[in-house]
User: Fold these one by one.
Assistant:
Number 1:
Amino acid sequence: MTGSVAGLPVVWHPDCLRHEPAGEVWLGVWEEGTEVPERASVLLEALTLAGAAVIEADLHGPEALLAVHDRALIEHLATIWRQWEAGGYPAEYGRNRVVPYVFPTAGLLGGLPLRPVAAVHGQVGAFCYDTMTLVGPGSWEAIKAAADAALTAAALVTAGQQVAYALCRPPGHHAGRASYGGSCYLNNAAIAAAALRSAGAGRVSVIDIDAHHGNGTQAIFYDRAEVCYASVHVDPGAGWFPHYVGYADERGTGDGEGANLNVPLAPGTGDAAWLEGVSALCEHVRGRGADAIVVSLGVDAAAADPESPLQVSAEGYRRAGEMIGALGPVVAVQEGGYDLASIGGLVVATLSGLLAAG
Ligand SMILES: [Zn+2]
């Protein structure tokens, strides 16, 4: 099940292939991992075959990243591999990727301020909140290129394009203002939303249809009225990542009170109930008014995906695209999706739905 995406701008940068996490440490044991460079190659090939117009991402300065992220996080991500290598971790200790081992939780600090830490291996947990989001030699180049792709797609929509797609890798929606995790480093969707705002869009909504809750995006905009976040995802209360966040009673705070919407779904949910969830997100966004939409386009809610228990079909994704595309101009940002055999068709199906609506 695919559709037509002839002429759709697909923004991409070859540096997105340079991030090789080389697996993850899951429950204390190294595993191969599924966030692999081939994901991007497979998507690029499927979109090219479906007639999309592939455009290379423009490079951007740090300002657009600083609109969303703390400078300290950006500097950490940009330099930690060099520090790790200089510290001899790969050569002398056989640690071939940056991985945290101690986390300055509220319980550890006991109310004391977070100090700068001398040991490189002690610094990582101040930013990285899990052990499955590793950094290697080409990671920063890919992280930066993914953000550049999102920014370039946002600029196309600002210039009048109805739909533009950013083929971002690594994904972004689990990354917060000063934190990274969940295979995400910088929040590409939030960066696109902030860029749309600064280019003049009064109200921007992020609609997240990845199988997992986008805890990073939610946190970034939680107290903001002008960017609303709405997500349908597998229920963290049923035992799924990000475990601590993504519940239905999280509605925003302060100026953002009522702007946030979470629709958690039971494992095993298929098209009918998932599309009802997407429809609820669209109603919420329509009610608040949106000049532009950012879609966190994860296709890991599909039945064949190894990372989630949801059972959505390609036709379900296409119909979600139609619903979302009817709301306004859309920047679609790639998030998850890990079954290499089916993700190309799923992304093409969603984008064809977005285009059919526009
Ligand atoms: Zn996901």
Number 2:
Amino acid sequence: MPTSYSPYWNPKNETLPRDELRALQLYKLRNLSEWAYARSPFHRRRFDAAGYRPAQLKTLDDLRRIPLMTREEWMASQLERPLFGDLLATQEVNAIRYHLTSGSSGRVPIRVLDSTKDWEWISELWCYGLWGFGVRPEDVVYFAFGYGSFIGFWGAHYGAEKLGALVIPGGAQSTENRVRQILEMGVTTVCSTPTYAFRLCQQATEMGIDLATDSRVDKLIVSGEPGGCIPAVRRRLEQAWGARCGDVAGMTEIGTLVVFECAHQPCGTHIIEDHVLEEVLHPERGEPVGYGELGERVVTSFGRAFMPLIRYRSRDMVMKVPHTTCGCGRTSDLYAGGIRGRWDDMQLIRGTNVYPRAVEEIVREHDAVDEFQIYIWRQDDLRDEITVRVELKPNRVAEWPELREKLAAALSSAHEGLRFNVDQVACGTLPRFELKAKRLVDGRPMTARGG
Ligand SMILES: [Zn+2]
């Protein structure tokens, strides 16, 4: 018998009036701040240097007395005192799990430890997101995920179990086997990156399978890249899968998801404000920006006690909008368009800012495109050039001449007339990604890179 469920995982907190929500945040921030000052040498050192004491926290605005925390400081501490630096607020022996960042772009990976209690919190937050998008105990949830040291969907796995769904860990196996498993097990919900959701469709097509009609999948939950909130990407995924597509986002530094899209699909993500405090600041000047303005996401997590994160600069590009933007009844604010990429991804080409997400929005409007790559290079050691390399679907290559012109024109007009080179590459030559897609390749000499 189908049961009638609340649309909210935590009906009380998710609909709390804003003033009560802010009071709850202040209470949790005080606790966190005291905990970190007393237990984490990293935070005590930084609080002392900034002349901040937890007792100074009288209102939520006093938050700004707390110094911002950067990845660089954290990494410096890790390198000085391997393996974990002095951020830990409790002894290593209390940990039950070790994870690290995917280590993309050749940076030092962030190493994290979590306790049993931290993991309970991590799965609880995933429950807000999974339940909020409509996952119920009757669902069969498939994780197209490698289950390695990268934290990725680990928390989502536990969240789906916690809410009572049947979980299928689609770990290390071929894409072909994953497609078979999705059909065989009557999977209703698939969790992956947007890029890998496309890859599964391509594989299914090669196997003569139409996932939209041959599978039971009606929910696609994507994470790890900005694609889930790019309208063209979403539309194509929803058509190919015959399913609703929802965006969620988290980060290894927090261990879990912190924003999720609800079943109303506002093309934006609710912030789980009873568990995290999210500020949006000007990326250079550091002052708060208002609703509807782009800024950098700065995050404080109330739940991860082992490694407290307080006013951590994520470098993520976001735009906050009020909760009333969505009609679901939640009182938590949203990020319109989800997480829009990273401020560090911005490229300066001959004086014009180019964001990979903006390029993707345009390229994905064209259904004939299978995969693409943005290549930046230097002409005659002098002038920066940008080339979009496009791989077409095998049965659509005849459309190239017309498509090339359309793309060049659309890309240029969206970038103050900047000239884009648009090249075709042979089918199957561009890299495919399972975790975080890296579609921007910078071929300029190191000294010439801007952005
Ligand atoms: Zn909503």
Number 3:
Amino acid sequence: MDLAFSPAEERFRGELRSWLEAHPLAPEPEDMGAWVAHGKAWQRQLYEAGWCGVHWPKAYGGRGASLIEQIIFQEEMARIRAPQLINLAGLTMGGPVLIAHGTEAQKQRYLQKILAAEEIWCQGFSEPNAGSDLAALRTRAVPDGDDFVVNGQKVWTSFARYADWCMLLVRTDPDAPKHKGITFLLVDMHSPGVTVRPLKQISGDEDFNEVFFEDVRVPRGNVVGAVNSGWDIAITVLMHERQTLTYSRQLQSRVALEQLLTLARHWPDGAPLAQQPLARQQLAAAVIDSEAMRYTALRNLTRVLRGGEPGPEGSVEKLFWSEMYQRMLEHGVSLLGPFGALLRGSPHVVDEGRWPHLMLYSRGRTIAAGSSEIQRNIIAERVLGLPRQR
Ligand SMILES: Cc1cc2nc3c(=O)[nH]c(=O)nc-3n(C[C@H](O)[C@H](O)[C@H](O)COP(=O)(O)OP(=O)(O)OC[C@H]3O[C@@H](n4cnc5c(N)ncnc54)[C@H](O)[C@@H]3O)c2cc1C
């Protein structure tokens, strides 16, 4: 593993830093609708300056740069504490899947609009009875002329309310073995028959949604890959989600850790927390976790740079990151003592209630993209080669 950047990569970082200094990120609005508009404008600005889709081919609006430059982009975004780009599902899953499996017409139609945040994407995989056992999904798509007609329900669909397109897994052959009769469809979220209902999370946020499909017509041209071959594509999506997305999330959790260390050193109420032995131990454990995570992520990155695709090893990263992030935030909240219970808007609130909010939000990280138990099964069976679960 070579941890040094080449002169060309350092030049790329320097250029990006200069651009970011000349285009400072405006504060994020609190209202969700305004936050989405703000996120779209920021992503569009990055795209127009050539910073979005750093690793995507130039022919589809990307920069055509290397994966290392994409990583440098993510590092710089974390350094300025920029929020995750608004079109997360499109950038980290939809786009890479179309680049790998889409037709030329699909690439031309969708990729540039994903980069410019002109069309926001969501991931319609989970159903009320198909989460960990995703292949049990029952949303049906039946051929009818040049279209499929879709009926069924998805759940936990992040950002569906703001999405223009959905990567939808549907059952097209109910008689085939369950992994075989699934198709990967791109569904226009503005089609007649699509209903989105928001769900409130423990953190008070409403990112999640239920999505209902009632006789929704989807042109056959919106199938990605072949009909009844959607399972393999879904697995590619999940591997990108577990590895590529976790890489940028671990950079963000490092920023949170640095903020926690600053708070512990400059505690506003009495002696710095950083002088208390228990707090010191917890903070030291969080720093060690974070370093271990960084090197594990770099090791996987090296494998991908040598020609590999994101694989089941990404489950190690996802599992370790999501659990360490929760531990760190739980320590953060306990360090605050009674202040840890105060949310934004409360009198005497510390750091605008960031720590309890992040801690509650982080609960979902060991569930999303496959729960910790499922990651352990994948690691056991597909990385370590242990016998399959019965
Ligand atoms: C923050 C967040 C964002 C999400 N965003 C999306 C999204 O945008 N699109 C989307 O499609 N889905 C999304 N999801 C859904 C997510 O993929 C599912 O919640 C997840 O796959 C688990 O499925 P489930 O909720 O049905 O739980 P279940 O599968 O019912 O699992 C319940 C419990 O049983 C355990 N379990 C299940 N099977 C096994 C097994 N074989 N061995 C051991 N233990 C097992 C699980 O680990 C879990 O603890 C999101 C979830 C979260 C938390």
